[in-house]
Write the structure tokens for this entry.
Amino acid sequence: MQEKFQKIKEKFIEAKVVVVLTGAGISAESGVPTFRDAMSGLWEKFNPQELATPQAFRRNPELVWKWYKYRRDLIQKVKPNPGHYAIATLEKLSKDFLLVTQNVDGLHKEAGNKKLVEIHGNITRYRCFNNCIFMDNPKSELPIRCEKCGDWIRPDVVWFGENLPEDALDKSFKYINNCNIFFSIGTSGVVQPAASFPLMAKEKGAFLVEINLEPTLISAYTDISIYGKSGVILSELIKQL
Ligand code: NAD
């Protein structure tokens, strides 16, 4: 382990541009379930891929609204964990830096990251399907309609089958194509297009580091993989940088 930290330190010191990609795993130690863990209890008979789509919302607005309200209520009770704070420190220690997060929970911002793109949106923001109205945290227990066009108000997140926000994607590509070191943290490497980002960086010559509980689809391409809890590993790494 010590040798791995030492190698990362060497590459980090040389690096002009640092990119971090995070997924649901970074928030697991805060108590936010990953998709694999989320479908317990009340939700165990549902598949996220069948709830997190525009078609699912239109088919059963009440069900999808409740699922999002349940996740939002849960997220509002949790706090960033040492992994989030370590990434905020990494930003401060880097010459140039971008955090690309797939998470919608807002915990990276709360931990202090400023140079970040939320490529899948944010669960506390809502908008009308036609973008007439934007709002934060609607209190209603039931789905509501837009006062202007009458269509549904929906979470401002990117659902399966939807495009990512163009500006967030452009910024991500700019950094991924120029970075010298790329950290892939707590992501299973299954959801596209983010799953391709580590390989894109590697193809452009970046040193690729993965931190995850277990091997993923990305592991075959990394220069260094460290398996364990991201909060524990990142805290140790930061101490050594
Ligand atoms: P995923 O659920 O597919 O994978 C999570 C990964 O994190 C797994 O590889 C798992 O091994 C790893 N992991 C779990 N606990 C960990 C820990 N303590 N330390 C390090 N790694 C850990 O998540 P994904 O790759 O982000 O893709 C799923 C989609 O789900 C994304 O679009 C994301 O937006 C969404 N999602 C977001 C949240 C959130 O905002 N917190 C939560 C659930 C799902």
